[in-house]
Amino acid sequence: MKKFILSLVAVFAVSVSSFAAVNNNVNTNRMNNKMDKMGSYLQMDGYQTSVIKSATIKLQDALQQACQETNEETKTLEIKKAVEKNLKQTSRVLTIDQYKKYLRILNSTLQNTGLNEYTK
Fold first, then answer.
1. What is the crossing angle of helices 2-42 and 96-113, to 10°?
2. 34: nearest Cα among 49, 51, 45
3. What digits encode the pLDDT tens for the residues 40-51?
């Protein structure tokens, strides 16, 4: 009986970990697809793409962490900081025209996710 329960737990653990790995691969593929589309829209070179991808991942992480805040004032401040930091990073590597297009993308994203009210 113990062996059966232990084997059942082992099978469950393996299936959960494999599902998590598949889910992570799906998220990675989505991110790569979005970055490819943004790269072609902004006409970025390889260096720009890598910097923007890194900045985007950092922005996503910071926004997720900020959205977990219960205090609205702190939440607003953290979201503003995350967006400002992202804009500083991206403005350093993009041309003026690319940066204007990037701002349109970021504004649309913030508006679609409902985070634009925190960045006013």
1. 140
2. 49
3. 888 989 899 889
Compute how many other C-beta atoms are within 10 angstroms of the C-beta atom of residue 118.
19
- Rounded to an integer, what distance in angstroms lies between the CA atom of residue 97 and that of residue 45? 14
Sign of the alpha-carbon torsion through 97, 100, 106, 107: negative
For residue 119, the SS3 value is: coil
Cα dihedral 61, 64, 70, 74 sign: positive
* pTM of the predicted model as reported, rounded to 2 decimal places: 0.71
Residue 71 to residue 56: CA distance in whole angstroms: 25
Confirm if 86 and 58 have CB atoms less than 8 A apart: yes
- What are the pLDDT digits (tens) for 62-105? 988 988 888 888 988 998 999 999 999 999 999 999 999 989 88
